UniProtKB/TrEMBL annotation:
Key words of the record: Carboxypeptidase, Cell shape, Cell wall biogenesis/degradation, Hydrolase, Peptidoglycan synthesis, Protease, Signal
Residue positions of the active site: 65 (acyl-ester intermediate), 68 (proton acceptor), 120
GO biological process terms, semicolon-separated: cell wall organization; peptidoglycan biosynthetic process; proteolysis; regulation of cell shape
Keyword check for Glycoprotein: no
Protein family: Belongs to the peptidase S11 family.
InterPro entries per UniProt: Beta-lactam/transpept-like (IPR012338), Peptidase_S11 (IPR018044), Peptidase_S11_N (IPR001967)
Protein name: D-alanyl-D-alanine carboxypeptidase
Signal peptide: 1-26
Residues the entry annotates as binding substrate: 227
């Protein structure tokens, strides 16, 4: 009987921390003092996934080469970056923007991804799709599977490059969500912030040299991505990202005649009105309980929302697997009665509190990617020769 009473107590026990106030959060409550020239636009805080601004954000539209954001993240997650990809006739013959691959040429998947994202190579997109997906059609299946997985409710992909095709579309809000997801992958983030990239050229003595089409990288302080796009039907499309004071924002515009200026304005507006606030800190104690917060939590908020923060400790079933593995519950976080996230809580002294937020596996993956992307370039061969002299 005592065990049953303890079980019921633990299931129902909650600790209220902080204050409740105000109506529920929504982007409608944001300052309405901004507009763009775009047919559709959105702004998102990458870490939290909070949409800070949206105009016609759920309207399906043609998205041109913004498609390649999905192509890149699917290839990174499903492919082996060190693989050598053989270029097919179908890839070489793809119309539109190109990195001018030749039939039968072999290039590492890592370098093809640079050609895809910096120069928007449709030939690179096709070669990547055929290699990773077994066929272009097989890869498109993976793209739509990923869209469903991350909750892109108004997107559908028909190809990996973004050339106009019926049934191929997305929205500003979906592209913002996709970009926030992709930027959390360190390989993707490394590629899209690169201004200039060299890659081995098997046909000449000099390397390929690709300069990023994304002018935001040079025009905006802290800019670190992401992708340009254009077709005659989609017109000018752009996704940009920037990081300031530890906060990364991503802006999306579709069919925008003045996109560079609009993106600077969107990003400035986001940093001004929605700075990140640390609501929970890893390692802090929970008052009245022998538990420790297991993960930090930050959230972008306007100044008038700060008084609406409250937290609720929800303990888990002591006979559950998670409990036996050391977790004691979740600290749920609310802003103006809207749940915006949760972090795990552990016993004091739990070994997980000593673990770094970035895993060793993640560090190694990024190191392997950098190495595979540099191998066999002129600069890489020179670097290897110098290193050899000192060993």
């Amino acid at each position: 009987m005592k065990v049953v009473k303890l079980y019921l107590l633990l299931l129902t026990l909650t600790a209220m921390i902080g204050l409740c106030a105000s109506p529920a959060l929504s982007i409608d409550a944001a300052p309405a003092n901004i507009s763009t020239h775009a047919k559709a636009s959105a702004l998102i805080d990458v870490e939290s996934g909070r949409l800070l601004y949206s105009s016609h954000g759920d309207e399906p539209m043609r998205i041109a080469s913004l498609t390649k954001i999905m192509t890149a993240i699917v290839a990174i997650e499903h492919g082996r970056l060190t693989d050598m990809v053989k270029v097919s006739k179908r890839a070489v013959g793809k119309e539109g923007s190109s990195i001018y691959l030749k039939l039968g040429e072999k290039m590492s998947l890592s370098n093809l991804l640079y050609g895809l994202m910096l120069r928007s190579g449709n030939d690179a997109a096709t070669a990547i799709a055929e290699h990773v997906g077994g066929s272009e059609e097989g890869f498109v299946y993976l793209m739509n599977e990923k869209a469903a997985q991350i909750g892109l409710a108004n997107s559908h992909f028909m190809n990996p490059h973004g050339l106009d095709q019926e049934g191929h579309y997305s929205t500003a809000n979906d592209l913002a969500k996709l970009t926030a997801y992709a930027l959390k992958n360190e390989v993707f983030a490394e590629i899209v912030r690169t201004k200039v990239k060299s890659a081995p050229n098997p046909h000449e003595k000099w390397d390929y040299r690709w300069r990023n089409k994304n002018k935001m990288l040079s025009m905006y302080d802290g800019a670190d991505g992401v992708k340009t796009g254009y077709t005659k039907k989609a017109l000018r499309c752009l996704v940009s990202s920037a990081t300031r004071n530890g906060q990364r924002l991503a802006a999306v515009t579709i069919n925008d005649s003045d996109d560079w200026a609009d993106h600077k304005k969107l990003l400035d507006w986001g940093y001004q009105h929605f700075p990140l606030h640390t609501i929970a800190r890893k390692g802090e104690e929970i008052a009245g309980y022998p538990y420790i917060v297991g993960q930090s939590f930050r959230y972008p908020m306007r100044s008038d929302e700060e008084g609406g923060i409250h937290k609720k400790l929800v303990l888990i079933d002591p006979v559950s697997t998670a409990y036996r593995l050391g977790e004691r519950g979740k600290l749920e976080i609310f802003v103006n009665d809207q749940r915006v996230g949760a972090v795990p809580v552990y016993d004091q002294g739990d070994v997980r509190l000593q673990q770094p937020d970035r895993s060793e596996r993640s560090k190694q993956t990024l190191a392997d990617f950098r190495r595979s992307a540099e191998e066999h370039t002129v600069a890489g061969r020179f670097k290897n020769s110098i290193q050899a002299l000192f060993h």
